[in-house]
Amino acid sequence: MRIGKISENTLKRSVLKNTYTTGNRLVHGASPRDNCAVFSYGEEFALASTHQVLLTGAEDSLKFSMLRGVNNIYAQGGKPEAAQLALLLPENLEEPELANLMKAAAKTAKELDISVSGGSTKTDKRIKEPVISVTIIGSRKEKDLPEVEAGWDILLTRPIALSGTAILAKEKEEELKKRYPSRYIEEAKVFDRDLILLPEAATAMKSFPCRMFSVTEGGIFGCLWEAARIAGVGLEIELKKIPIRQESVEICDFLGINPYELMSDGTMLVMTPDGEGYKDALSEEGVEAVLIGTTKANNDKIILNDDEVRYVDKPAADSIYILFE
Question: How far apart are CA 63 and CA 110, in angstroms?
Fold first, then answer.
């Protein structure tokens, strides 16, 4: 199987087909349609979203796993509240390294305004690098999210590829400095300093019917495919309207990777019938949104680049995995 997220066909055929659920409080469980589990507790609904982000450093892997879960809860219209951490560690990991990892978890939890509520920590001689799994627990008032209709606006908040660019700038720093000045690389390294999607989600849920999708692994192209599938609509997107920093373009070009298939934590894709109203409301919160296209009644997923027309493919492995080659 490919590195990173398994393909949708493999997910359906070998994972979801073999799951088991009972009635109890579960409203939505594992499925390609929902990015988190939803449980009924009277007038409120609990949300659970699990993530494993595989990066070259354990602290970054932990940080992005927590961030991704929190942003997914926000995208599901909920409020994240706590993190459960499962750490499977190499036998030779020293205790000070574990303490530093947990200090990083506490620091990230404080930034995300959630608690670390528990989990599991084990060592195993078969493990060569730390394996980290994070489940974020949250809640929301609504049982279901709005159904997307044809003709809704599609927007992006913040440029794509920010998190991926920051990781590439850190991990490929010496290689990049052969081409770009140090100041340029230092700026790119801090693209990941504020990737929390709270303003976008709070503004959307307060004032507008919408569906939100956190752009993560597989980049914007992967998110467009998955969002269209989940929403049950087609898309028509203008490529040149997708916001991207010049640093991301140049770093990705130098490394020979596609920025549109690069992890983009911190960017939200929003479908709403009132794109202009959402943009104005979000601007008052100090966050810019860009209208990049519309939903369609058919299943076509089209990207326009001037006179060129292409179709969004099924998500490929994230470009970030160049680090593991």
Answer: 11
From the candidate CATH numbers 3.90.650.10, 1.10.260.40, 3.40.50.300, 3.40.50.720, the one assigned to the domain spanning 153-324: 3.90.650.10
Q: Give the model's pLDDT for residue 253.
A: 95
CB hemisphere CA count around 74 (13 angstroms): 27
In this structure, what are the phi and psi dihedrals at residue 42, rounded to the nearest 5 degrees? 70, -120
87, 121 Cβ separation under 8 angstroms: yes
Reply yes or no on whether the pLDDT at 205 is more than 80. Answer: no
The DSSP annotation for 151-163 comes to T-EEEEES-BTHH
pLDDT at 133: 96
- Each residue of 35-55: pLDDT tens digit? 788 889 888 999 999 999 888
pLDDT of residue 212: 94
Q: H helices within the chain, ranges in order?
A: 8-10, 58-75, 95-112, 162-171, 173-176, 182-189, 198-207, 219-231, 246-255, 275-283
Backbone angles phi, psi at 198, to 5 degrees: -60, -50
Residue whose C-alpha is closest to residue 119's, from 107, 106, 135: 135
Per residue in 2-14, pLDDT (tens digit) is 566 766 677 667 6
CATH of 24-140, one of 3.30.1330.10, 3.30.450.40, 3.90.1150.10, 3.20.20.240: 3.30.1330.10
Pull the structure tokens for residue 225.
């495919």
